[in-house]
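Extended Data, panel c. Modelled sequence:
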Amino acid sequence: MKKIFTITLAALLVVFAATSCVKEFLDIKPRGSDIATKIEHFQGLLDAKNFMSFSGSTYMHMGEELCGDAQTLERLLSSEKDKGVYAFKFDRDPFRSENTCDEWESSYSKIYTCNFIINNVMNAENGTEAQKKAVWAEAKMQRAYMHFFASIMFSKHYNEATAATDLAVPIVTEAATENSSTYTRPTVKEFYDWIISEMKEAIPFLPEGYGVTRCSVAAGNYLLGRIYWYMGDYQNALTCLSTSLSKVKGFEGTPVKFLSFRDNAAIWTGAAGYFTSFVDVGYNPESLLIRYLASTTYVSATQASFHYVKPEYVAKYKEGDLRKRFLGPGKPDATQLRLVTRQFFNIMCDLPELYFMLAECEARVGSESNARDLMLEYRKSRFDSDDNAAIPAEISSKEDLIRFIVDERNLEYIGRGASVIDMKRLWDDPIFEAKKANFTHPVKDGETYTLTSVDQLTWKIPLRIKKFHADWQDN
């Protein structure tokens, strides 16, 4: 009965919060504090299925690896109204008219839940001070990260030279609406300073032990490391990510580990956990902390992507690379392969990305040898033999190694938006200047859409939000 009560409470709060995004985050005073009184209620909010699920896949249509055919835009229109088409065309305003804006709305609905916990859990009528503080810290950690997730598409990338004047998304810290009209857009510098401060404050109180739905010390250092990595602060990222991996390897029973593609043939069937890895239908041992993004608006009912992968990206999968099995034959051009993707995938913390981020940081400011060791350990889980998993001999310089690591990350997460994040964060990186020539979306027998400015990767504020904040400076 208690479990049902907790899940129902969570569902009500999330629906309440989702409505708020349309009506100025909320037009009604929340009553959550009249319901949740015990520590287990607040813990239940963190474990609730609604809190673990997420939506917001529009940005994935901008990936540099994608191309289309004559039906691509038609499929996007039928599934996503026109927002998928706008994103594929690198249009800065995909959420015009009344298009839903999941990247914004889903983020702030989760922020509302986190705020409710942070604002109330320390007054729970039972539980120890340490238990309350741990729940408070988990919610604080995830609130900061959900702000970051919203900012990826609606704020400019962190640039030390302009961060004090560029604008980020609003910081919301109360589960209330009385002062919602006063929400403003902080500067990018203020925004990242706040996120880092929040995470640093939370990490000492996070639990040491592993729980895939709960934010451990390992996951906390991972998330803080990701913020530094995204900002280009590779030294601080290296420190955090190294701590995270050390904690992961210290978990009792090795619950987080690479899933060997060569030893688990079942992952190639659509019903397997690796494809549909939502917590109720399969468990992926590579997950450190789960928040699942539903890609149902990005793929068809048969899990076939609306897009094709460019032939030059298909060619990046070398002999023995089992990751290529996620690509299926396409029409009308057999050189273009369609992505067969998971229905759900984890956007929070998983082991491959920890290795990619840590390896890149090692290559940039740490040890190139360590970077190679990390990549080799990862690749052995993805190739049919150790010989094929070896890092190619032509990867000889530091710059080659960094580019190789970034390529490997995109091959692991192809079609899932990883390349979009790299397009934005590496725009001014001289090592990747040549990549800009690939930022096009050709359509067979049709137009080619080209990304010509990094500003196209910073979307305008969605109309559904902007109409309640006409005073906000738009992007």
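The chain is about 45% helix and 5% strand. This feature is highlighted in the accompanying rendering.
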